[in-house]
Amino acid sequence: MTDHSPVTSVDHIDFRAAFPFGSLLRAIGSALRPARLGIAILTLAFLVGGGRIWDGLTTSGADATAATEQMGPFAMMMTHLEMQGNTVAHAALTLDAAGVVQGVIAMGWGTPAALWAGGYFWFMLIYGCWVAMVMALGGGILCRLEAVEVSQPGPASVSDAVHMVSRHWWSFTVGLLVPFIVAGMLGALLLLFGLLLLNIPVLNIIGGLLYGLALLAGLGMTLLVLGGLVSWPLFLPSLVVENCDASDAMSRSFSYVVHRPLRWILYVATAAVGLALGLLLISTIMRFTVDITAGVTSTWTFNDAHLAAKTMQSNGDLGDISWWSSATGWCMAFWATLTTWVVAGWSLAYVMGVSTRSYLLLRQAVDEQDPKEIWWPGLLRGTLSPAPPNADD
Q: What is the pTM of this model?
C-alpha cells in the first residue's frame, strides 16, 4: 500500500500581513491631502523664513560684492541638502542602496559637519532651536494625523491633531532637543578636560591617568550621534504616538532599530523608493501644469507679461519691459513658484507620514503592539492606561 503525503492548498494570502512594509507607500497618497499639504507648506515657510532672516541679518553689514560672492549659512545648507536630496532620489530610482545610504549620511552628518567647519556655531545653535520648535508643531501635527489615520477607519481630524500637539508642543520641542543638549554637554566637558588637565604641567599627568573618563564621555557622544543618525526619523513619531518624554522616546526609537535592524533597513529603502517615485510624479504634474497654463494663456496675450514672469523666475534682467507687464509678470511668477512649494510640502508630509508608519510597524514587530493602539487624551502620558478623574494628560 502506497502512502500519500497530505496535499496542502492555499486559498488566500493576506499580503498586507505577510508584507506589512508595503503599507509604507500609502503615505504617498495621504501626503497629497490638501490639509496636510497646507500644514507642510506653512511649516516649510517658517523654516525657510527663519533661515533667510538669519542670512539677511548676518550679511547686511557686508559690502555688496562680498554678499553676492559668499552665501550665508542657511543658503549653503540648503544647497548642500538639495544636492544630496537629488543624489538620494536618483540612487533610489536606480535601486542603488549604497548611494541611498551615502546620501542620507551626507545629509544627516555632512550638513552639521560642514556648518561646524565653516565656523557657523551660533547659526547651528539658534537655528537648530528654531527648527526644533517649528518641527515639533508642524511636523508633530503631520505625524499625529498619520497615526490617527492608521488607528481608526475614518478620516483624521485636523482640529484634534492640532489641539493635541499644541497642548504638548513645548515638551515635544524639548524632546527633540534633548539628544543634542546632552551631546553638547559631553562635548563641553571634553573641551574643559583638555583645557584644564592636558595643558598645565603636572596636571596633565593627572589628565592622562583620567583619560579613560574622557573616553567614556566620547563614547557617550558617539552613541548619541550614531543613535540619532540611525533612529532620528522615529523620534518625533514616538513622541506624538506615545506622548512620552524625551528619554522614553530615545530609548524606544533606538531599541526598535537595534532589535530589528534588517527590517528597519527594508523600511528605509521602501520609504526612499516611495519618496523618489512620489517626487517624480508630483514634480512632473506641477511642471506640466505650469507649462500648459502658460502655453494656453499666452496664445492670446499680446504683451510681455509671460516674458517678464519667465525672466523673474530665472532672476534675469527685465530690460525695457513696461511696469504694468512687470507687475503682471511678478504676480504670475509668484503663483508659478507656489507649485515648487507644493512639491516641497508633499515631500515633508510624506517623510512625516512614512516615518510614523515605520515606527508603528517596528513597534508591532518588537513589542507585538497593534498599530491601531496609540495614545489618546484621557490616558496617562506615555501609556495606554486610563487617567484618573480630573487628571491633566
A: 0.82
Report the distance separating Cα 280 and Cα 176, nearest Å: 31
pLDDT per position as a tens digit, 206-236: 888 888 888 888 888 777 777 766 677 888 8
Question: Tens of pLDDT along 145-160?
Answer: 999 999 887 777 889 9
Coil, strand, or helix at residue 256? Answer: helix
The SS3 assignment for 8 reads coil
Cell of 9: 492548498
User: Grid coordinates standing for 135?
Assistant: 518641527
Contact 107, 85 (CB under 8 A): yes
Q: Which helix (H) or strand (E) holds 264?
A: helix 261-297
What residues contact residue 346 under an 8 Å CB cut-off, 6+ apart? 31, 32, 37, 40, 278, 279, 282
Q: How far apart are CA 267 and CA 284, in angstroms?
A: 25
Ramachandran region of residue 20, left (φ > 0), alpha (ψ -120 to 50) or beta? alpha
DSSP 379: B
| 273 φ/ψ angles, rounded to the nearest 5 degrees | -65, -45
